[in-house]
Specification:
Length: about 100
C-alpha cells in the first residue's frame, strides 16, 4: 500500500444517536451522529407501525391470503380427483372380475 494516501482509521469512533445512545465502532470519522439506532428503531424495539394511507399493505395481504386459499383449493381438487380415479379403477376391476366369472 502507498503511504500517506489512506485516511486515518479510528478503532474507537463514537456514534451518538438522537435517542441518547452512544457506542464505539471502527471508522475513519471520529464522531458520528445518527437519528436512529438499534435501541430506538421501531423494527428492533417491536413498536413498528405501518402507516398505509393507500391501503397497499391491506391489498397485498388480501392477495397473499387469496393465493394461500387457491393453493388449498387446488390441493383439495387434486385429492378429490385422485379419489374419483381410484374409485373408477376399483369399479373397473370389480367389473373385470365379474366378467371373468361368467
Amino acid at each position: 500500500m502507498k503511504k500517506d494516501i489512506h485516511p486515518q482509521y479510528n478503532d474507537d469512533a463514537q456514534v451518538t444517536c438522537a435517542c441518547g445512545n452512544t457506542f464505539a465502532i471502527g471508522s475513519t470519522v471520529e464522531k458520528i451522529e445518527t437519528e436512529l439506532c438499534s435501541k430506538c428503531h421501531p423494527f428492533y424495539t417491536g413498536k413498528q407501525k405501518i402507516i398505509d394511507s393507500a391501503r397497499r399493505v391491506e391489498k397485498f395481504q388480501a392477495r397473499e391470503a387469496k393465493k394461500d386459499e387457491a393453493t388449498v383449493s387446488k390441493t383439495k381438487k387434486r385429492e378429490r380427483r385422485a379419489k374419483l380415479q381410484k374409485e373408477k379403477r376399483e369399479a373397473k376391476e370389480k367389473a373385470d372380475i365379474v366378467d371373468t366369472t361368467k
